[in-house]
Amino acid sequence: MEEFDTAAPVKSPSKVMTIAIVAVLTLVAGGGGWLVGAMLAPPPPKEQVEATKDTAPNATGEEGVPKIATEANGVVQLDPITTNLAYPSENWIRLEVALQFDGVPDPAMAEQIHQDIAAYLKTVSLQQIQGPRGFQYLRDDIQERVDLRSDGRVTNVMFRTFVIQ
After folding, report:
1. Coiled coil located at which positions (predicted)?
2. Which domain range does residue 159 map to?
């Protein structure tokens, strides 16, 4: 007696079935991600959302809100300094600095310090001020120049913007 294999050959799943399984798994994963996201960061309460819809009349800072950098506070905002670097000369630097005076500010001294910082920046190369350590060296150098120029009347140099292009 001869025995024949009567078992049917095993069929591989069709492409349609594979696409359907992948689509269902994608929907389950997306729904799970949405659920976890909603649990970790729930939406804000309605009261908070409604409170932020109306802007205050002084939200722009123009109406009734005093500026921090005023001569009454002993702070003088210097004009922005824009100059090219020593090397490479194609690179430009823009620096906005405010000076905090000990006592009454001296606008003439602030202008001299402004000119001194501008002249110093023209001697700096890009390699000297790259990275956090280079920026710290630049801050220290400018602070030292300001201390020498002001004879200690300026207590703090505040960097407002620093851009290299």
Report:
1. none
2. 71-164
| Average predicted confidence (pLDDT) for the chain | 83
Q: Per-residue pLDDT averaged across 36-56, rounded?
A: 73
For residue 92, what are the contacts with CB-CB under 8 A and spacing of at least 6? 82, 83, 84, 85, 164, 165
Same domain as 50, residue 21: yes
In a domain, 7, yes or no: no
What is the percent of the chain with per-residue pLDDT over 90, rounded to a whole number?
50
pLDDT over 70 percentage in the chain = 79
Residues linked to residue 129 through DSSP beta bridges, in sequence order? none
Same domain, 50 and 75: no
Residue 30 lies in a domain: yes
Q: Please check whether residues 37 and 78 belong to one and the same domain.
A: no
Nearest C-alpha neighbor of 116 from the set 146, 161, 87: 146
At residue 7, the pLDDT reads 61
In angstroms, the CA 37 to CA 34 distance is: 5
Please report which confidence band the pLDDT of residue 9 belongs to, taking 50, 70 and 90 as the band edges.
low
Q: How many domains does the chain have?
A: 2
